Amino acid sequence: MTALGGSSDVGLDRPQRRADKERFKFTTFVWLSPAGILLIALFLVPTAYAIYLGFTNLQLLGPHASSFSFTGLANLDRMVHDSVFWSSVKLTLVFVIGSGIIAQTLLGMALALLGQRAHISIRATVGSIVILAWVLPEIAVAFIWYAFGQSGGMLSEIIGKPSDDLLSTVPLLIVCVANAWRGTAFSMLILSAGLRNVPEEVDEAAQLEGAGYWRRLFRITLPIMRPTIMTNMILITIGTISDFTLIYAMTQGGPGNETAILPVYMYIEAFQFNALGYGTAIALSLIVIGGLLSIFYIRQLKPELGKAS
Amino acid sequence: MIWKKTTIGVAAGTLAASVLAGVSGEVAAASTHSSPRGSSTGISVLYSNNYVFDSDALAAKWWNAMAKQWKSADPSVKLTLLGTGGTDVDEMNKAAVLFRSPSETPCVIQLPTTYVGEFAGSGYLASLNSYVSGSSAPAFWTGMPKSVQAISTINGQVDAVNAGNNDSGILYNKVMFKKAGIALPWKPKTWQDVLSAAKLVKKAFPKDYALWAAAGVGAGPTNVLQGIGNLIDGSTNPTMFDSKTGKWVVDSPGLRATFQFYRTLYMDGLGAPTSQLFPSDSVGQPPLLMKQGKLAIALGSNWYTGDWLPTAGAPWPQASADVGVAAIPTENGQAPGSATTIGGWAWAVSKSCPDKADAWKFIELAQSPTNQLNTAVWSGFVPPDTQVGTTAAFTKSSLYQLQFSAYASNGVPLPNSTNFPVYARALNTVTGNFALHPTTSISSAVSTMTQLMTQQLGSSSIETQK
Description:
The structure holds 2 protein chains of 2 kinds. Chain A is an all-alpha fold. Chain A has one domain: MetI-like fold, CATH 1.10.3720. Chain A has 15 helices and no strands. Chain A has helices spanning 2-13, 27-53, 74-80, 83-117, 120-135, 138-149, 154-158, 166-169, 171-196, 200-208, 213-241, 245-251, 262-272, 276-300, 302-308. In chain A, helix 3 (74-80) packs across helix 14, helix 4 (83-117) packs antiparallel against helix 5 and helix 11 (213-241) packs antiparallel against helix 14. The longest helix of chain A is centred in the first third of the chain and has 35 residues, at 83-117. The termini of chain B are far apart. In chain B, strands 1, 2, 3, 6, 7, 10, 11, 12 and 13 form a 9-stranded mixed beta sheet that branches. In chain B, strands 8-9-14 form a 3-stranded mixed beta sheet. At the A-B interface, helix 2, helix 8, helix 11, helix 13 and helix 14 of A face helix 1, helix 3, helix 4, helix 20 and helix 21 of B.
């Protein structure tokens, strides 16, 4: 008893470990090391190397293909004075914001709202058709719109000018429409799920108070769905900002450089003009743009993030 | 709400990560490593599966025959064939990545002649001078005209051996010409003659395309080889790259005259529509359009006629009766009277190949008269060796091969420089602008050339010729 009682006393004097507080354990390193090694080897090291290459004169072919050197801010200086680069930045923003964030979110939301009110059979049919565009390989979508948008294609027939080559006269519009057409299904799925999470009792209460459909949509449904909408917009931005296949297969960045968004311009510089270092520097500029958009999203989501913590 | 924070955080992080991944993916591709390919007991050969021969089946037939011949000649040396898909640009991009690692580098590479300068400039190619000089020079080399040998010889170093060439001429539809009231045989003496004929055809066939002249960036440097390059070579200032100054010509009377030709072509509605001109596979359109009776005149390549053979992509038995041929005239009919670019494919040996003697043996085998002939007939090439090029087996293989062989005597290779793709893109942008906006002024076209070249290479790399 003494021993037991003594032990109990000692235990009371010692500071108690809180069960809810995380403790550092060396074994954590062991369990995390496989993932950590993979992350370092396959992501951090190549990324750091890419950042370094962005400041070199590395060529795909040419005198600096095998013996390249660090050139400081030369690529950055070239970029600042490269009017094609700035036009490319503008095109990228139009493509990402116009065809991705705005068009896909609006169309996805419209379809999600219509689907909510439609009969289940119609909702299933329309949903399946829309999703079909999303599950098609990007290259297939490119060829569909390539055929659709050129002279003699269905689009020029529909507008009553069969000889108009819309893919050459309004190339950016056509690739934007193609991108929106492809990505709308994804938004529809995300936003439909978000709509189902809006509590019915809130909507019913507003209805009893005499609020109309549009008022309930803008004052209740959309504010509740705000985090879902923002998440959807982030995912669309991820999918669109680095898009290459769709545009390259449809226009190769042309005519001229009219559809050369940054990933396409990066490819042209790196793989057609052999300027691998400069092409990598352009890729790094995509990180900056992506980072700026991320900051924008995080700032917009600040209220929700505050509540969550 | 924790899941929302986590989801949003992960999504925002992924946004930056996805961009980074794109960058790292590119770099990872450029530094791939695996087991060595070249060794003392074998050689490897990198070639295009889809872009050299008229069909994939013919490519497979030729390469299978090569493998058999190699095995029977020396079974102890293993031959590894590294066929690659896609276009010439795809093959070259793959080669450029492989050559960055000596252990990955193939011993022999089949490459477009326009890329020889780029690979040589990278220090990737072995000198072949010792194999082609002196009394031991092989017959296929001594049988080549000096101009063909020169295509892949830079600063006195033989970097590659020509495997076959394309040159250009004018193919025209005789039936449409007759209906348009143009006397046959048609032999234009100046560019104006070509445009005048195109106008007459357009008047007679308003819905069809009068004259094909490649334009736009879609098909890459090939559009220069088979399009505007022919006109520049026939102009009064036929210089694209000034080898004396090491500068690219962005403005000259010849360049302006060439731009004026394109301007008139599209301003008068004589050219093909942009939907036909701009796709990456536009190079293959003229033979098809001619066969369909939709195109009257094509400023095009010698391989077109091979496309009309029964075994090729657009069989057209009537072609021999319906199609005529003429040389591309010079601007004002000045000497030598006709002009054409010349370029094709070549064999080169990599500097890091451990067994260059075996690599050279492979090239000798590929250049045997039979293999050279098959390459030419199945690819629409003019054989580099004139002895092969004058055999009945070649001249009768498809329409007008004899004429195209004759045109090649005035052939001018495209500049063999690392920066040629930049110049080609600038030229193709200008021709594309004329096709899309025919009212584009000549000074605006020159300004576009200057701007694009300056942006890429700097103002010290360009010049104006008076």
